[in-house]
Amino acid sequence: MRVRCCRPIDGCPARIQPSPCLPLPYRFFPSWHFLRLVACNDSVYSFVQYLFSQLRVDGKPPSSLWRRTVIIGIIGVGHLAASILSGLVGAGVDPADILLSPRGQAHALSARWGIPLAADNDDLVNRADIVLLSVRPVDAHTAAADLPWRPGQTLVSFCAGVTISRLEAGPARVMRAMPLTSAAINASPTVCFPATGPAIAVLEKLGPVIPLGSEEEFEVATVNAAVYGWAQDLIRQSANWATARGGDAMAMRKLAALTFVAAGRLIAETDKPMETLIGELVTPGGITELGLGVLAREGQPQAWQAACDAVLQRLSGRVPA
Ligand SMILES: NC(=O)c1ccc[n+]([C@@H]2O[C@H](COP(=O)([O-])OP(=O)(O)OC[C@H]3O[C@@H](n4cnc5c(N)ncnc54)[C@H](OP(=O)(O)O)[C@@H]3O)[C@@H](O)[C@H]2O)c1
User: Domain 68-221, what architecture?
Assistant: First the structure.
C-alpha cells in the first residue's frame, strides 16, 4: 500500500501536528485538509475552542454528560468539617456533589451552602465515592465500622492519632490526611498517607498536598497541626505586645500575621538551606541575634521541642493499634 508522507506544517503547534505518514485514504479526504488548516491557525483554533467552551446542555457543559460526578461525603460535621466545606465550595465544588452526615453542625451548614443531608451514615456511604471522616478520634473506629463500604471508594480520615489499622472500611481504600482550618481559605498544607489519586484531587482543593511515605512519618508530621495553633498564638502575642505599647490593634494584627506568612513563604519557596536563610538574617550585634539570645536563655529551642515531643507522644499513645 502506498502511503503519503506529510511534512510538518510551519507554525502549527506540536500537539496537533499530523503523524508523519498517513495511510492512502487520507490523501482524498478533503475535510482532513480543512481541519489541518483550522487547527494550524492559532486564532481560528482559539475561536473554535471558545465556541466549544460556550456550549451548554441544560445549563451544564456537555462534558458533564459523560463525566460521572464524584460525590464527597462527610461523616463528622464539626469545627474542621465547617472549614473543609467552606474551602470545597470556595474552590468551585458544586454543593450538590457533597453529602453530609446529619449530626453536629450539618443542618446549619446544609442550609447555609445548599448541601444535601444523608439520611444516616449508611445512606452516606452508599451514595458517596470519597468519604471524609472528621469525628473526634475517640469516635473514629465506631463511626467507620459496619457501614456499606464498597470497592473503589476511599475513606479519608482526618482523625489525629487514629491508625489505618483502627479504621474498618471493608474493601474501600483508607487514607489518612491532616488538613488545617486554613482549608477554609484554600490555604491548608495537608499531609497524607498513603496517597490515593481521587482523594488527593479533593484535598488539593483545600491547599497544597504533601504526600508522605509511611504512617510513622505521617504521625510525626501530624504534630504540625499543633504547631499551627502555636504559630497563631505567637502571632497573637506579637500583635498584643505591640498594641499594648501604642500600636493600632488592626495594623499590628495584620503586620504580625503577614510577617509569619512572609517567613513561611520564603522558606517554602526557596531551596536554600534554612540555616543559610536564618544566618543571613542574624547580623552580628543586630536585633535578631539579640532576641535569639534572650529566647535561648529562656529555654528555646528546648521548650518548643519538648512541646512537639509531648504532642507526638499523645498522638502515638492515644488510640493503640
Ligand atoms: N479542629 C481542627 O482544627 C482539626 C485539624 C485537623 C484534624 N482534626 C481532626 O478532625 C476531627 C474532628 O475535629 P473537630 O474539631 O471538627 O471535632 P468536633 O467539632 O467535635 O466535630 C466532631 C463531629 O463529629 C460528630 N460525630 C461524632 N460521631 C459521629 C458519628 N458516628 N456519625 C456522625 N457524626 C458523628 C459530632 O457530632 P455530635 O456533636 O452530634 O456528637 C461532631 O459534630 C478530630 O479527629 C481531629 O483530630 C481537627
Answer: 3-Layer(aba) Sandwich (3.40)
